Amino acid sequence: MKTVKKTETPSLDGSYVLIDSGDFRKLEQIGPYTIIRPSPVSAWPATKPNLWKNVHGEYVRSDKGGGAWTWNKKVDEEFYIQILEYSIKIKFTPFGHLGIFAEQLENWKKIQKLSAGLKKEEEVLNLFAYSGISTLAVLDGGASACHLDSSKGMVDWARDNATASGLADKKVRWMVEDVLKFLKREIKRGKDYRGFILDPPTFGRGASGEVFKIEKDLPELMDLLMQLCDNKPDFIVLTCHSTGFSPLALQRILEGRIRNKGRFHLGELSIPEESGRLYPAGSNCIYVSERLSL
Fold it and tell me: How many Å apart are CA 109 and CA 138, to the nearest integer?
C-alpha cells in the first residue's frame, strides 16, 4: 500500500478565522463574533497581543473542571454560517464548543469526493459524528449515510444542519447510541458499509453512560468496523486529537486490518492563522481503496 504525506491547511472564507494563538489560548472569529477559547497546545507567545483586547467573550476553564463563557458584548444564542455548500448552526455551548472543527475542512471536501464514487445505495458510517458536517458531505456526494452519536442533542443539531443545507430528504439514518453496542448489533444484522469516518475521543460516554477510552477501546472498535466491510473498505477517514496517536500510528492501526489494495494519505491537521503560521490540530489518516480516487 502506498502512503502520501501532507499537512492540511483549510480556509473557511471568513465564516471562521483563527486570528491568533498563544499563552494557551486562541483568538477566533466565528461569524460576526470575536471570541477567546482555551488552547492547551499554544505554549508560545501571542503574535498580535493588541487584537485580544476588544472581544465579544471568552470561555474560561475552571480549576474544578468544566468552564463558562464570560460575555463583554451581546451575542445571538445560535446562528448559521456557510461552510462549503452547507448552512451550519453555531452555538456557544456550556462546554466551550461551537459546532465545527475548522481543521476538518479539507476532509469534508475529500469525503464529498469519495462518496461521489460510491453507488447511491452504498452506505457510509460516520461515528462520533458530532454536528454532522461529514454526514452532509456524504449525502452531498450522493451516497447513503448513517450518522451515529451518543448525544441526542448533537444528533438533533446535525439534523438541523441537514435541513438548513437542503439535504434532509437524502438517505440517512440518525442514530443515538453507544458506538460499540451499535456496531455489534449491525454485525448481527449483516450490515455492510463502504466507508467509515471517525474522530474517536480520548474519553467519552455512551448514550447509557458507557465509557469509551481510546487507548483501551480503539482496537476493538477497528476490529468491529472491519467486520462490517469484510476487511475491505472503500475508504476510511480516521482523525485523532489524542496524545501519542500520530498519523503514522493511525496508519499502522488500519493497515494491519485492511485486506484490499489502496493508498494511505497521512498528514497533520492544522488551521492557518492570520499571521500565516499554522495552528496544530491533530492527526489525519485517510485510506482509499483502488476503486476510488482522491
Answer: 10
Residue from 131, 130, 132 nearest 111 by CA: 132
Closest C-alpha to 282, from 119, 134, 106: 106
Contact 1, 261 (CB under 8 A): yes
Q: What is the DSSP string of 146-212?
A: EEEES-HHHHHHHHHHHHHTT-TTSSEEEEES-HHHHHHHHHHHT---SEEEE---SEEE-TTS-EE
CA distances from 134 to 2, 89, 127, 198, 280 (A): 25, 14, 10, 10, 20
DSSP calls for 247-273:
HHHHHHHHHTT--S-EEEEEEEEEEEB
Q: How far apart are CA 91 and CA 261, in angstroms?
A: 42
Assigned CATH for 16-91 = 2.60.40.1180
Neighbours of 2 (CB within 10 A): 9
Rounded Cα–Cα distance for residues 183 and 186 (Å): 5
Percent of the chain past pLDDT 90, that is, above it, reads 84
The predicted model gives 64-87 an average pLDDT of 93
**Burial annotation 4-19 (CB, 10 A radius, 16+ → b, else e):** eeeebbbebeebbbbb
Which sequence spans correspond to the domains of the chain? 16-91, 102-289
- For 102-289, CATH number out of 3.40.50.720, 2.40.160.40, 3.40.228.10, 3.40.50.150 equals 3.40.50.150
Question: pLDDT, tens digit, for every residue of 170-208?
Answer: 999 999 999 999 999 999 999 999 999 999 877 666 666
Q: What's the pTM?
A: 0.91
Assess contact for 83 and 100: CB atoms under 8 A.
yes
